[in-house]
Design brief:
Alpha-Beta Plaits, 2 domains, 5-stranded antiparallel sheet, 4-stranded antiparallel sheet, about 40% strand, globular
């Protein structure tokens, strides 16, 4: 896998439009993605005076030259070390910090329903990690909200929450697969990217 960090310029009209519309940003990022690749990405908005940034994860090296030719000058800056290889090796019992911006849902009577209560979201992340080779140790749930998106002119409403916490590895292969494929729905809106890093007390 490969990780890239992109800093869109809020003063650029094209970038400003993408920052306000997750699906438009998804379409723009697609110009950097190799054919057949299925990218995962997350927009981390500029809070506390920080610039907004986009973390993009791909299975193949992205073509940033083509992307910038398409977007034009002044759209964004690419972090100097992007893209960088990301081939983590996990061991059972290893502790990792994680972040996931996701669409927690449950299917009832054939219908997919969003989960908005904190307790429901806590159970959702615990169950999703357990099915994907990890045990939840702790989690902070923030940005819990109902968000409205537009995709090809159609209005879509999704439950959205950000999960930050610590997990323990139970099945390294399953966890690696979950990182590569993402968790949950709404990937075209920047949801589902599971980021992990070494845990240090």
């Amino acid at each position: 896998m490969y990780l890239s960090l992109l800093y869109p310029n809020p003063d650029n009209p094209r970038a400003r439009k993408d920052l306000a519309d997750p699906y438009a940003l998804h379409q723009s990022l697609a110009h950097a993605v190799a054919p057949g690749d299925r990218p995962l990405w997350r927009l981390e908005s500029g809070r506390y005076g920080e610039d907004p940034r986009v973390l993009l994860q791909t299975l193949k090296p992205p073509d940033w030259e083509r992307f910038f030719e398409r977007q034009g000058p002044g759209y964004a800056e690419l972090a100097p070390d992007s893209p960088k290889r990301f081939d983590p090796v996990f061991t059972p019992g290893q502790l990792l910090r994680f972040r996931l911006y996701a669409n927690p849902t449950v299917t009832r009577a054939g219908k997919r329903l969003g989960l908005y209560r904190e307790g429901e979201q806590w159970r959702w992340i615990e169950e999703r990690l357990a099915d994907r080779g990890a045990k939840l140790h702790s989690v902070l749930i923030s940005q819990r909200e109902k968000r409205r998106f537009t995709k090809k002119g159609q209005a879509i409403t999704l439950a959205v929450a950000q999960f930050d916490g610590v997990l323990g590895v139970t099945d390294p292969e399953k966890l690696l697969q979950a990182i590569a494929q993402g968790i949950g729905h709404g990937k075209a809106f920047g949801l589902g990217l599971l980021s992990v890093a070494p845990y240090r007390e």
